[in-house]
Amino acid sequence: MGFARTRALTLSGVEGRVVEVEAHGSDGLPTFVMSGLADSSCRQAPDRVRPAITNVGLSLPMKRWTINLSPAGLPKVGGGLDLAIATALLAAEGHLAPSEVAPVAHIGELGLDGAIRPVAGVLPMVVAAADEGVDEVMVCADNAAEASLVREVTVHPVRTLGDVVTFYRARARDEHHPLPLPVREPAAPRATKDLRDVVGQAMARGALEIAAAGGHHLLLVGPPGAGKTMLAERLPGLLPPLGEQDALTVTAIHSVLGALARDDDLVRTAPFVAPHHSASMSAVIGGGSGAVRPGAVSRAHRGVLFMDEGPEFRRDVLDGLRQPLESGEVIVARADRHVRLPARFQLVLAANPCPCGGGPRGCTCAPWRRASYFSKLSGPLLDRLDLKVALRAVARKDLALGPGEPTEVVAARVAGAREAQRERWRGQGWSLNAEAPGAALREGRWRLPPADRAPLDEGLDTGTLTLRGLDRCLRVAWTVADLAGRDRPGRADVLQAMALRQAEGVKAA
């Protein structure tokens, strides 16, 4: 009778989980029995493991092999548990010392020839291993650079199951058998798009700067060719580099999606995600059949989600944005579990003024088509957008004005405004004006004098503002004051925030 245990790592959403893999061989009808809520690809592991062990020159007797994946109630997904299952079986059969393999966590999919293949999501899995006190992780060599981003864990890169056997047998003899990490390729410089390329549109440029400074959501309405996409693509260049914790979270999400760059370094710049208007609910919000996968809103975490041709998106997809816009996360509920996906992004929604676009000859749409077009943008969704700006078509006089301010200059002002916000909200649990609770701005030390907030109170009384709209106007007013270097917003800042909340051709919110 042989028994051994080791550790594996799996994913639950974008979070890693440590799994204990137990292998037990006994007399009986030759078969593999696997317990522990394994999905179909994980249940097929024995079909890959047995030929892989044979093809590296070892044997696995025809026994009744029982493989238990603990905790039993945690769903296990993917082929990344192959390496741990193979290692546990080899130790149970006596090819490896059980005491050597027990404390190490293993990640990797096996080929039939014994090759170890990379898997997605290695970074969050190794982070989970470090949090659980695991000191060593064995991964495919192609994943080693990514795994080594977690400095608290020693990473052992392997390419074949034979490398695994050689490594553990050397350790059992107290011999030093180092497995060097692959040389990381230097990151290629990423070109950023300059704001000076945008012709005219002074109001929209100002709104973009306010959005970048305070983390506000933005709606751009204008005819084709007015510069809506150009403005949205230049918003990430105005945002400061990600902090260490945010960079780790964003990189983990990209790792799960298999979207990391070849340099395997932390993602330091704000991501920019632009899904097509035909994208499904699971593609944008997250979920899907089987394993829960993050959607575009999570991929845009701490960055920009740009939804061009907003009214062309499905109504349920647009309304699905309402929860993450408020809470900064997506909760996918399943019968057996709830998965939380981070989704703290800035939304830039772009739309034409009507289905035909309102070209040079004006709108040719019937009134009912125009109303139907914008009905996709529900009132509750528009109420969550802080800035709404109407763009006009570019004219020849705009070309004569020459280029506007470059990204570098505007980004410096944005950085100064964000530093002022960090100092103001230090110790409050948030760092941006857009994240400040409405109650904190309406009450206590941050409450504006009655004369300054009178326009907001009047809008609330007449029904032109909801309470959510009032709170969002207050947040924008604070950001306008921060960009101007003032300690507190005044009446002019409040009026500017209210003006930026309206856009021609869009329902008032």
CATH topology of the largest domain: Rossmann fold
What is the mean pLDDT? 89
How much is the radius of gyration in Å?
28 Å
Oligomer: single chain
Overall body shape: elongated
What is the overall number of helices? 22
The low-confidence parts are none
Total strand segments: 18
The strand order across the widest sheet is: 3-4-2-1-5-8-9
Going by CATH, the architecture of the largest domain would be 3-Layer(aba) Sandwich
User: Which band does the percent of strand residues land in?
Assistant: 15-25%
Describe the sheet with the most strands.
7 strands, mixed
Q: Could you give me the name of the CATH homologous superfamily of the largest domain? A: P-loop containing nucleotide triphosphate hydrolases
Tell me about this structure.
The longest helix has 18 residues, at 407-424. The protein is built from 22 helices and 18 strands. With 509 residues, it is an alpha/beta fold. The strands form five sheets. A seven-stranded mixed sheet has the order 3-4-2-1-5-8-9. Strands 11-14-17-10-18 form a five-stranded parallel sheet. The protein has a two-stranded antiparallel ribbon with strand order 6-7. The termini are far apart.
Précis, in short:
This protein is α/β, with parallel strands linked by helices.
Topology overview:
Blueprint: E1 2-12, E2 15-26, E3 31-35, H1 40-43, H2 45-55, E4 64-70, H3 82-93, H4 98-101, E5 105-107, E6 109-110, E7 116-117, H5 122-131, E8 136-140, H6 144-147, E9 154-158, H7 161-172, H8 202-214, E10 218-221, H9 228-238, H10 244-256, E11 272-273, H11 281-284, E12 286-287, E13 293-294, H12 296-299, E14 304-307, H13 315-319, H14 322-327, E15 329-333, E16 338-342, E17 346-351, H15 367-375, H16 379-382, E18 387-390, H17 396-400, H18 407-424, H19 438-442, H20 450-462, H21 467-484, H22 491-499
Helix pairs in contact: 2-3, 8-9, 8-18, 8-21, 18-21, 20-22, 21-22
